[in-house]
Amino acid sequence: MTGTDDRNASAGRRTRDLKVAVVCVAAVLGMTGLSFASVPLYRWFCQVTGYGGTTQVATSADGVEVIDREINVRFDANVAPGLAWEFKADEPVIRVRLGEMRTTFYRARNVSDRPLTGSATFNVTPAAAGPYFSKIACFCFTEQTLEPGEEIEMGVTFYVDPAMLEDPDIRTAQTITLSYTFFKAARPEEPLAAAPDADDADPT
């Protein structure tokens, strides 16, 4: 009887040990997955909530009521150290009606003597305006490569949702600032030189 009890106890311990091992492995895998997913999840969270001044993304302004209340929209342009570009907004400030779809343009020029690639991030201030500033088209997060002296024009299409008037944190705002900052992006690796064909090899 004692031998049977010992075997049962030993089997029970092995089962518990196996369960603990499975839970530990699952926890490690889960934490690893979260570490890789944290950035896209955070970006998604910001886009949905407008947290931190992140704007909304829209496909059009159809169905959005245009009202007579106007607001100033200021366009800020910045270049991070290490990127030899000139970057500016064609219209530093425009006045728009809430719900009105508008398009404006930024310009970037490479002032260096070599090709440079940049990518822009953005935010709006005050941060409470994020949920109500909807961009239909923009150039953010898209890498732009400019040759020496090359200049490009980049458009931003947007509207400001009249729903902001129902939000006590933003309804009295007179100005919203959309700010872009271009950062230097790593250039793709240059292709390796092709190996010479055997027929082209130097016979010496």
* Structural class by sheet pairing and helices: alpha+beta
Question: Considering DSSP H and I runs of 4 or more, what fraction of the residues is helical?
Answer: 10-25%
Order of helices and strands: HEEEEEEEEEE
- Count of helical stretches: 1
How widely separated are the two ends? 89 Å
**How would a textbook summarize the main sheet?**
5 strands, mixed
- Alpha-carbon Rg, integer: 28 Å
Strand order in the sheet with the most strands: 1-7-9-5-3
Mean pLDDT: 76
Q: How many distinct beta strands?
A: 10
**Which geometry do the CA atoms define?**
elongated
Structural notes for this entry:
- The chain contains 1 helix and 10 strands, in the order αββββββββββ.
- The model is unreliable at 24-53 and 189-204 (pLDDT under 50).
- The protein has a 5-stranded mixed β-sheet. A 5-stranded mixed β-sheet has the order 4-2-10-6-8, with no helix packed on it.
- The chain has 204 residues and is α+β, with helices and mostly antiparallel strands.
Blueprint (SSEs and pairs):
Layout: H1 2-49, E1 56-57, E2 70-79, E3 85-89, E4 93-97, E5 102-110, E6 116-125, E7 133-137, E8 144-146, E9 151-160, E10 175-184
Parallel strand pairs: 1-7, 2-10
Antiparallel strand pairs: 2-4, 3-5, 5-9, 6-8, 6-10, 7-9
